[in-house]
Amino acid sequence: MVGTPVLFIAIPLLAAFLIPLLGMIWKELVRIIPGLVLAYMLVLSVSLLSYVLENGPIVEVLSGWAPPIGINLVFSAFSGFLVTLMSFLGLIIWIYSYRFKRNVDFEPSKKYFILLLMMITGSIGIVLTGDIFNLFVFIEIVGISGYALAAFYMGRNSAEASFKYLFMGSLASAFLLLAIMIIYSQLGTLNMADIASKVHLMDPTYKVVAIIFFMAAIGIEAEIFPLNGWAPDVYTEAPGPVGAAFSGIVVKAAVYAAVRMVYTLFDVSGTYDFLLIMGLITLIVAETTALRQDKLKRMLAFSSIGQMGLVLIAFGIGTLEGVFAALFLMLNHAITKSLLFLSGSYLVFNSKDKYIKEVNGLGKFMPITSFLFALGAFAIVGLPPFAGFWSKLSVLTAAADSNLILIIALILIVSVIEIVYYFRVVNRIYFFKKGESVIPQRPTAHALLAMITLGAIILIIGFYPDSITGILHKASADLMDKTKYINDVLSAK
Amino acid sequence: MDSLYKMIEYGIYSAAILLILVGLYGALTKKSLIKIVIGLSIVDAGIHLLLVSIGYLKGGTAPIFSPGYEDKADIMVDPIPQALVLTAIVIGFAVTAVALSLVIRLYRHHDTLQIDDIKNLKW
């Protein structure tokens, strides 16, 4: 054991606040410290995860107040898997943006790394916490750093995108607070395990109202249609690695919150079907909208929303296979969409409006970046032998096991749409003539390292899916077992 | 006396819900960015009021074990909603500050606060 779960929150927060002071001593520390912190978090999460897979969940009680009174952190197979994924992506994004733009000077890089660390802290906190008010606080940490990162470039459009996100986010936090208040007034507890064990005592009307407020709030953060109006704007206007952080880290945390609520907290019938239907609508609307986008990052943003819809469908199936498929999809989407955002932002690096037509013919001038983008595109539409194939296959088999034939048909139709718009971009990269005014940008060595790592992981999971499925099976079994979660938390000291 | 207390209780609840609705109305229908931010703050205030009032106890006292109140835990008001509201106020303050700074940024770029004139981004 190299540490306890609370370090996932304490260390990056401490580092984020120390960065300005350390930057006064030596400017390079501003860039180095976040990397050290994220590398430590990755090592810690991997070692804790391997411990948890053998010996069962770690429940950490903060400041000696045992549950249900105090705040506790739960590092189980499910949350530990997500924490490992988030720490890994955080490290990749740090490597990528170590020298993101040569012309970015000291001051912006300081703000960028502080905000990025805060956002990762908040997301990991959402996943680890066992207390719904604490969940609210972490969602706000993610929100506030997210608003600032969305407006990072200080342009007119980024301020507009950020204000949209802030407006939706404030409404989300208001709804979340209302839901928490209703639960507290009914049950007198804020601890998730305690709520889960007492939720049958709640008045059914209040329970439905609370779950509606909760869903509305989490839906805004998790990009569920029709609450995702902010997402395409923020993805388009924020820096490329921030887009990767949003789709790979923040949205995963929000989906975790929604799933924890449906699977553990409430026992209302019909919530699984609700997830299924909302996921289906999100998938169809987002993928058809992505088809008619003419800006690269905006297209990726809609594709990201669509993939989250697919994850919700898999969770909504409600069986063990469904949860397994959803976790597999979350893993693949986090890695693949990050690769697409990171390589895609180099493809349109020097263009002002980031139109798709500006990537024409770049395959000759930026061979590695273009190849990695194409790899990501093939993986996300689910071509074998890439990672995305196995996750899409597991969604389809999970749906088939539950006799949801209509869902299978719709997923396959939407996959065709997905293939059309991704292959259109790949076709432009390789088989079109380069425009006169387009200046190719050589990626930095750090960026190449980050992108090649992600590409290699896509291939490894694609060829050896067994390397990861063991962990995913344990994580999905962990999520399904509600009584064990309650017992583990409430018996912690 | 009891009925008066009930009336006050319902009065506070309805005032809080009214505040939430006023704030939502302002945030959703007004065209000026500043008014939208004010609306969001009013929603927050309404929720905070509601949260504090559900923790109140008739004839309750402050949740502090001061001399003379060592064994009076049953007449103390619930301290948790107050702690929650304190946290929520701080968060609301931070969000409002970020929102206002974004409004300033938008005003510098567009020379207007009307959201109808700021629509570079759309679906």
Could you walk me through the main structural features you see in this protein, from its secondary elements to its overall organization?
The complex is a heterodimer of chains A (493) and B (123). Chain A has 493 residues and is an all-alpha fold. Chain A has one domain (7-490). In chain A, 75% of the residues lie in helices and 2% in strands. In chain A, strands 1-2 form a two-stranded antiparallel ribbon. The two termini of chain A are 19 Å apart. In chain A, 59% of the residues are buried. The mean pLDDT of chain A is 86. Chain B has helices at 2-29, 33-54, 79-110. The model of chain B has no long low-confidence stretch (mean pLDDT 85). Chain B has one domain: Helix Hairpins, CATH 1.10.287. By secondary structure, chain B is mainly α. The chains are: A mainly alpha (493), B mainly alpha (123). Chains A and B meet through helix 5, helix 6 and helix 9 of A and helix 2 and helix 3 of B.
Radius of gyration of chain B: 20 Å
Mean pLDDT of chain B: 85
Instruction: Please bin the fraction of helical residues of chain A.
Output: over 70%
Helices of chain B, by number, come to: 3
What is the CATH domain class of chain B?
Mainly Alpha
**Beta-strand proportion of chain A:** under 5%
H and E order of chain B: HHH
Q: Can you count the beta strands of chain A?
A: 2
Spatial gap, N to C terminus of chain A: 19 Å
Task: Report the oligomer.
Answer: heterodimer
- Please summarize the sheet with the most strands of chain A: 2 strands, antiparallel
Q: What is the overall silhouette of chain A?
A: globular
- Alpha-beta classification of chain A: mainly alpha
Please provide the ordered H/E string of secondary-structure elements of chain A: HHEEHHHHHHHHHHHHHHHHH
Give me the count of strands of chain B: 0
What percentage of residues of chain B falls in helices of 4 or more residues?
55-70%
**CATH-assigned fold name of chain B:** Helix Hairpins
Name the poorly predicted regions of chain B.
Answer: none
Radius of gyration of chain A: 21 Å
What's the CATH architecture name of chain B?
Answer: Orthogonal Bundle
Q: List the domain count of chain B as a whole number.
A: 1
